[in-house]
Structure formats: C-alpha cells, structure tokens
User: Which sequence fits this backbone?
C-alpha cells in the first residue's frame, strides 16, 4: 500500500526528531573531546566487502543482508554494519599515509533483514567509532573509557560493562578443538543454526540466544584458559588500564560478539531493562580485518551502538530533555495592506536571526492571536489599517498581555534589539 512504510522501518516525526538531534549533539561533543573525526561512507557497497569483512558464517551474512544485482550485473549490499566500510575507505583513501592512529566516527543508517521488535528495526541507526593503527592495550582502554563516558554523559544509570578476550587465530585453534569436543555429544540439543556452526565456527554457539543452546553450553570451556602469552598479557594490561581509569567491568566468558572479525578484546555495555535488546553498545578489536580486505596487517579496535536502543534507555529513565518549541515573534496582520507590510517585515526579522511567523489566509485577530499562543511566541506584533495610517505597531508581550505602541520606522530595530 502507498500509505504504509515497509515492515521494520519507522518514520521519525517532528517531536521525535528533536530527541535524535539531542543525542547526535552529545555524540559530536564527546567525539571532539577524544579527537575522533567524522567519516561518511556510502549506504551500499560491493557485496564481497561484507562477505570477507564480516564473515560468511555470521547470521548477518547468512540471513540478514539486503543484497541485489544492479544494472551493471554487480552484486551490491546495503550496509549491515559500518566497520567494513570504514576499513575500505581507510585503504582506498590511504588514510594510513601519515603513520598516525586514525580515530574515526560515524552516524548513519544500517540495514538488516531481522525480526522487528522494540529497539530493533530493519533500517536502524548506529553511532560507531574506529581507532585504526595501534596494538597497544592502552587504545583498547581508551575506546572503552570513551564508550563509558558517552553513556554516563547521557545520565544513564544501571549500565554494566561486560569484558572478554576472544584470543587470536593462534590460540583459538586449540580452543576451537576443545569446544567442539565439548559440544559433540550435545549436537542434538542445539538449534539448526548452531549445528551448522559446529564445524565452521563453534565459538558462535556461545553467542546463540536460543534457550536450549544456552543450556547446552553451560560448563563449556572458557577461552581465557586457552589464550596465548601475547593475548593473555594484552588482556591483563587492558584490565589494569580500565581500573586506573575508574571504569567498572565484569568478565564474561560467554561474550564472543556476533561478527567473525573480532580478535582479543570483546566488550558490551548492557542495560537489562531492555530485555532481549539489553546490549546497547558493543565492540572489540579486529586486528585481521584490514589484511582480509586487502591491506597490510593493521591493528584496530572500535564499537557501535544502536541509537534506537539508546533512545529507549533514555526514555525509560526519563532522561530526554523537555521540548521547548517557541517562536520569537508572531506578526498579526489585519487587512491586505497590513499583510504585505508584515510579509516584508517577516523576511527582515528572519534575516536578523529571529524566528518569526505570520498566519496564512484571511483570519480574524482572535484566531491569529490564538495561533501565536499555540506557537509559544514571545511577542505578537499587531498591524492593521489603523496602525498603518498612524505609522505604528502594537507589540504585545504574550506572557503577560502587556502591550505598547512602537513607531514603524523603528520597529525592526526594536524587535531585533529584543532578541
């Protein structure tokens, strides 16, 4: 139907847009503090980027991507996440040229064919950051502290940070075998997806939200027990730095995240009142992704948060600012000559930086005053044929109804001075 939008999408209407602008303003403020610069990538990319970047065994690639063939017979995909796109932009535009860590952030729409529910849409919006070019655990701690600072700046309470290390290809080999040995006798208890993951990527079984799979994974070996020396040292340093920064966290051995490119650090901030969508921000290190996309081995770490979920959390805690929509001046025109004069004045006031309005159509003074009040105008300027003849305007203070006469010759100057 022409009057309905596709399932899993949402109109953001006046009244709600202001909440989004507030949140985006907070994002840009904190990115400035941490010296992250904004990057904007296309909403669609060559499908191969996401197949290689995200991983073919992930739910995102297997089930959720919006993929189509364009008129040039190329496979194109609407971006389901933005890290792979940022990596592609980093390589294509040679952002590595100056040798410094590239600290980037983005805000934009992502697309996944998922089951719509509260806080989850098929078109959703993410804010994310990427710090590319540094392997020191200190940058991990800085990015996580950044995320904690961002959530705290919004006033959010009862948000818990979960932390884990998913190791590297070296130490995951032994862990993968041990995990398969654990799950092999339990294959019949697993869902179809996890039985498929058993050979390809058994770590993803730990990430499954199916209750039977969660029960079957109780007592599974923990990857922290299989970390190589490098990964273990990195993880210990990260925890030390977070303690220095005063960032509270708890270890979660089941946290593996949903994308194949993660290495070493994995983390999530959870707000349990959101239920199934309790993870409002998450990320980790992806040291192999840039090489997988055709670049030189380059360490990197980042996170992303769904703005819909953050807004839900803010709403639950009554943290969204009160909307104060107001207009500086309403021009009340009575008669055609007055309408022409007021329209000229309307444009001059706007050029002076004042929010000004006037009514359309031939409305009575009472109706126009009512509209001025509804728009929360600070002043009403009344001009009719009598006022034009006397070369004055009546300026009414809408809060107390006090009014005065102002000569038309000085009206613009006086209204501009009263900003």
Assistant:
């Amino acid at each position: 139907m022409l009057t309905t939008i596709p399932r899993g999408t949402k109109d953001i209407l006046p009244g709600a847009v202001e909440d989004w602008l507030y949140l985006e303003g907070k994002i840009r403020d904190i990115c400035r503090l941490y010296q992250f610069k904004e990057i904007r990538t296309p909403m669609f990319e060559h499908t191969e980027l996401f197949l290689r970047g995200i991983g073919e065994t992930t739910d995102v690639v297997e089930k959720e991507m919006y993929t189509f063939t364009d008129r040039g017979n190329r496979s194109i995909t609407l971006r389901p996440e933005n890290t792979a796109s940022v990596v592609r932009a980093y390589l294509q535009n040679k952002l590595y040229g100056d040798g410094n860590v590239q600290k980037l952030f983005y805000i934009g729409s992502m697309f996944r064919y998922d089951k719509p529910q509260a806080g989850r849409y098929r078109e959703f919006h993410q804010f994310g950051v990427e710090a590319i070019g540094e392997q020191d655990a200190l940058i991990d701690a800085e990015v996580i502290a950044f995320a904690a600072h961002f959530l705290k700046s919004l006033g959010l309470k009862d948000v818990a940070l979960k932390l884990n290390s998913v190791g590297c290809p070296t130490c995951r080999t032994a862990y993968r075998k041990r995990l398969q040995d654990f799950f092999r006798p339990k294959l019949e208890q697993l869902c179809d997806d996890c039985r498929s993951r058993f050979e390809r990527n058994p770590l993803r079984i730990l990430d499954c939200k199916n209750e039977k799979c969660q029960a079957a994974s109780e007592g599974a070996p923990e990857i922290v027990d299989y970390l190589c020396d490098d990964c273990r040292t990195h993880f210990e340093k990260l925890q030390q730095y977070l303690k220095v920064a005063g960032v509270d966290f708890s270890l979660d051995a089941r946290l593996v995240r949903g994308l194949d490119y993660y290495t070493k650090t994995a983390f999530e901030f959870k707000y349990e009142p959101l239920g199934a969508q309790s993870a409002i921000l998450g990320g980790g290190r992806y040291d192999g992704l840039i090489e997988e996309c055709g670049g030189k081995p380059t360490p990197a770490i980042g996170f992303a948060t769904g703005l819909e979920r953050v807004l839900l959390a803010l709403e639950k805690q009554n943290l969204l600012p009160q909307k104060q929509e107001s207009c500086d001046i309403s021009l009340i025109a009575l008669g055609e000559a007055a309408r022409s004069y007021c329209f000229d004045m309307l444009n001059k006031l706007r050029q002076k930086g004042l929010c000004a309005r006037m009514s359309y159509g031939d409305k009575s003074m009472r109706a126009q005053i009512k509209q001025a009040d509804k728009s929360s105008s600070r002043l009403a300027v009344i001009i009719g044929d009598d006022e034009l003849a006397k070369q004055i305007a009546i300026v009414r203070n809408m809060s107390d109804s006090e009014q005065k006469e102002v000569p038309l010759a000085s009206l613009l100057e006086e209204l501009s001075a009263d900003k």
Q: What stands out?
A: The radius of gyration is 28 Å. The mean pLDDT is 92.
